[in-house]
Write a structure and sequence with these properties.
Chain A is mainly alpha-helical and about 400 residues long. Chain A has three domains: about 140 residues, no CATH class; about 90 residues, Annexin V, domain 1, CATH 1.10.220; about 120 residues, Annexin V, domain 1. Chain A contains 21 helices and no strands. In chain A, helix 2 runs antiparallel to helix 7, helix 9 packs across helix 11 and helix 15 packs parallel to helix 18. The longest helix of chain A has 24 residues. Chain A starts with a helix and ends with a helix. Chain B has one domain. In chain B, helix 3 packs parallel to helix 7 and helix 6 runs antiparallel to helix 7. The chains are: A mainly alpha (about 400), B mainly alpha (about 140). At the A-B interface, helix 1, helix 7, helix 10, helix 11 and helix 12 of A face helix 1, helix 3, helix 4, helix 5 and helix 6 of B.
Chain lengths: ~400, ~140
């Protein structure tokens, strides 16, 4: 839930209260730090440096850290990287930055860079992929750097296909993916439901064509790089049995999505589709526009069976109004009749609605008619009654 | 559990009248879910729609990058927290971000609607569920 994530972000990053009037109109990604073009470029370069250093540490281990720290001149960047040496709990990251005098300053530019670094440290300590770290850090700079970050990430992490060897774990996924080749929606939805870890583990034991088919419907260029990386991780960290289990689980997911797409409609669904939506709307509106007294009189005089039949042709708000217009005992009788009723066809529903409309008409028109004078019905009510009664 | 933050609550506050605009917005986001179900995420993230809001356009690209739900949620929260919007504009950004998270999780249309409708307020949510739910949706 995004509201919870926002609350956590506010607490972690201590966002200042913003008092000035907000700009109106559609947001194009401007940020509250209001960095100029030069400082934005500088912050982007700092993020690249941080991410590159994280990659070095991930590859060469923490022994690489002193060498990296020695060559880094920027204090905040050096401090942030030094935090990666020890397993610092997430909640202490902000405190560590504050104690180092790196937060709470008046300089908006520095404040932005420091929050980027705090976020970078947080993601790096979670062992996030460098692509994820870069995306999280550059989110502070708005959308203006989105494409530039992507270009750099592709250059930095892009691999030319065929760098990893195939590992075939027996399973049904390759055939299933081939069968579903024309249904991009199902394949893509399965990867999202399974999440990147399970998808990668399932694909780790499949031929390249299967992996490419899955990536082709669900991932863009950076997504493909990330997926390849996850597949390599799965192959090194999971056993063949675990890869086979993952493949089976993914197959079960694909099968269930395939079934749900081709599932024949239940009688209720078919009935719902056949329902005349204009009749539902007219009858519901008629219930809603009637005054309390008239509605009470009309519904009290209705056979519970007819009232139950009418309920099949109205919205839930109209149901509520109809049932609340009568005494509890009467309402119960209507509900019992509804429970015993079977879904009616369009013709019967229309006929019942017309009987109801006639009852409304006879309740509302004066008992003694003045010749030549129109019934004094409100326009809306007249229109609804006409719409229902003129149906064939 | 829903967390609470005073500054966030202040930024999100807007009138009931403004919240009525969420109906068409939610309808459009449900349409995006329908497209994803047919075309797949890569295709809809690459289609150029000039009417698509920037956070939706960039958010779809982030989904096609295949991040975990947790990472995507944190990244979108940073975009929102550092945005300059308040009031209805900010609320509508949150609704769009919620829709992106739901799309990334592979949620079906009905679940997406149930996640978005409460942003319109308790009373309006019921009407939205009626008007955009399975009986009246696609």
């Amino acid at each position: 839930m995004i509201v919870n994530a926002l609350c956590r972000t506010y607490v972690f990053l201590h966002f200042p209260k913003k008092e000035e009037a907000p700009p109106k109109g559609d947001w194009q990604g401007e940020t509250l730090f209001g960095l100029g073009a030069r400082r934005t470029t500088s912050a982007l370069e700092m993020a690249k440096k941080f991410v590159s250093a994280v990659v070095e540490i991930q590859k060469g281990g923490k022994d690489k850290l002193p060498e990296i720290l020695q060559t880094e001149k920027k204090k905040s960047l050096r401090f942030s990287l030094s935090l990666l040496a020890s397993p610092l709990p997430f909640e202490k990251i902000a405190k560590a930055f504050a104690e180092a005098g790196l937060t709470g300053g008046d300089d908006g530019d520095e404040e932005c860079e420091n929050k980027m670094l705090m976020t970078g440290v947080r993601f790096a300590l979670k062992n996030a992929h460098p692509i994820v770290i870069m995306r999280a850090m550059t989110a502070f700079l708005g959308f203006s750097v989105f494409d530039a970050a992507e270009t750099w990430l592709i250059q930095r992490f892009g691999t030319k296909g065929g760098e990893w060897e195939e590992l075939i774990v027996p399973g049904e996924l390759p055939d299933l993916v081939a069968d579903l080749g024309g249904t991009a929606g199902i394949l893509s939805q399965a990867t999202r439901l399974a999440g990147p870890r399970l998808t990668a583990a399932a694909l780790a034991g499949c031929p390249k064509e299967t992996v490419e088919a899955m990536k082709g419907v669900s991932s863009n260029e950076l997504g493909c790089i990330l997926m390849d990386s996850e597949i390599i991780d799965a192959r090194t960290s999971l056993s063949s049995d675990e890869l086979a289990d993952a493949q089976d689980a993914f197959c079960a997911l694909l099968e269930s999505l395939k079934e749900s797409q081709h599932k024949p409609e239940t009688l209720e669904e078919e009935w719902g589709k056949a329902l005349d939506k204009n009749l539902v709307s007219d009858l519901s509106e008629l219930i809603m526009v009637l005054d309390d007294k008239s509605l009470h009189t009309i519904v009290m005089a209705l056979e519970p069976k007819l009232a139950a039949a009418l309920i099949q042709t109205m919205t839930s708000i109209a149901h509520d109004r109809l049932l609340s217009s009568v005494a509890q005992g009467r309402g119960k009788k209507i509900l019992n009749a509804l429970e015993a009723a079977s879904p009616l066809g369009t013709i019967e529903l229309t006929r019942n609605a017309q009987i109801f409309a006639q009852k409304v008409l006879s309740e509302l028109v004066p008992k003694v008619k003045s010749p030549g004078k129109a019934f004094p019905l409100p326009t809306k009510l007249r229109q609804l009654l006409t719409a229902i009664l003129s149906r064939e | 559990m829903i967390l609470w933050n005073a500054e966030l609550t202040r930024r999100l506050s807007c009138s009931e009248k403004e919240k009525t605009q969420l109906g068409p917005l939610i309808g459009g986001l449900l349409g995006l879910c329908d497209s994803a179900k047919v075309e797949g995420m890569k295709s809809i993230s690459q289609s150029e729609d000039p009417n698509r809001h920037p956070i939706v356009a960039y958010g779809l690209r982030l989904i096609a990058e295949g991040f975990s739900a947790e990472a995507l949620e944190e990244i979108l929260a940073i975009y929102l927290a550092t945005s300059t919007q308040t009031g209805y504009e900010f609320l509508s950004l949150c609704v769009r971000a919620e829709a992106l998270l739901s799309l990334a999780a592979g949620d079906p249309r009905e679940l997406l609607l149930r996640k978005l409708a409460p942003y319109a307020g308790a009373q309006a949510a019921t009407s939205l569920l009626d008007s955009l739910g399975p009986e009246n949706g696609q």
